[in-house]
Amino acid sequence: MISHPRPIRLHVNIDHVATVRNARGTFYPDPIEAAAACIAAGADGITAHLREDRRHIRDADVERIRTSLRTTFNFEMAATNEMVAIATRVKPDVVTLVPERREERTTEGGLEVAGAGPDLARHVAALRDAGVKVSLFIAADPRQIEASAALGVQQIELHTGEYAHASTPADLARELARLVDGAALASKVGLEVAAGHGLTRANVGALMTAREIVELNIGHAIIADAIFLSIAGAVREMRSAIDAGVAAR
Length: 249
Hints:
By secondary structure, this protein is an alpha/beta fold. It is 47% helix and 17% strand. The protein has helices at 15-24, 31-40, 59-68, 81-90, 118-129, 142-151, 161-164, 169-188, 204-207, 220-229, 231-248; strands at residues 9-13, 45-49, 72-77, 94-97, 133-138, 155-159, 192-196, 213-218. The chain has an 8-stranded parallel barrel with strand order 1-2-3-4-5-6-7-8, surrounded by 7 helices. Helix 10 packs across helix 11. The longest helix is centred in the C-terminal third of the chain and has 20 residues, at 169-188.
């Protein structure tokens, strides 16, 4: 395994390796083999989202990731009784609670924390009692950030979708500023800051302006790049883009 004493941890989401596997009902490509290749190429951890409809990652994948992975396993999931039961049994290193709707292609938008009822607090407490680090996938909105801190989680992951999909320079600048301000506020109130969604080699460098971000969760772009670069090459190229952004700030 390659060690990278860098300020930004890169976690690779392997969901869409499972998407390709499931498209043909085969046992390959194996997401666990992909996870091992990503770690060997310099990733610091692996992210996988067990959706309620099991459209890509499956229960058996989660079990195999946990037993085979020797580095950080970030388990993305909805805040439901079923998923909390799985997480407290499997004990990933981190659980990231995300919003989930059956009709969406991928997770869109951040978790509603400020207006959440008692169930979210109960799920967070159960995970923390099981010794699992808890992160919340949220918008870079002061209300959501402050509510996350009040809930007692250790980390937030800022949703970067609007930044990644900005269509004009003005929109891009506005969304980047929102993320920079959100990361600063989160750090000020004692939260570790991660970020993810829609990040690519082309847009990740500028995001490093947000100095408080210590972790990135990137999946679709790396798996897409792997078609042309190999999965190891895709991880190395993403790492280089991140490092260039850090060096430029």
